[in-house]
Design goal:
Radius of gyration: 15 Å
Helix content: 40-55%
Order of helices and strands: HHHH
Structural class: mainly alpha
Number of helices: 4
Protein name: Reverse transcriptase domain-containing protein
Shape: globular
Number of strands: 0
Distance between the termini: 11 Å
Length: about 80
């Protein structure tokens, strides 16, 4: 951002809590469909993966996976802003 003309700084209230299990599942499914996941039997594990990566139906603040997962979920948004 150093050499860019504009810089956007924002704070989204309850950011991780606003990302729901269905968003996580949709991102996993999207990447399966695109061939971006090299695990051949991932279809049978994706429900368990979502359960492990969420807490009470949302992406938890503090989980080591939450940051990267939120980046993947919001990739299209980030690209649209750019």
């Amino acid at each position: 951002h150093k050499n860019n003309k504009y810089f956007l700084s924002t704070d989204i209230s309850n950011f991780f809590g606003s990302i729901q299990s269905v968003d996580v599942m949709a991102t996993i499914q999207h990447n399966i469909n695109k061939g971006n996941i090299a695990i051949t039997d991932i279809e049978q594990y994706k429900d368990n993966i979502v359960k492990l990566m969420t807490f009470e139906g949302t992406l938890p603040l503090g989980f080591s996976s939450s940051g990267r997962l939120s980046n993947s979920i919001l990739l299209k948004f980030d690209q649209a802003v750019l």
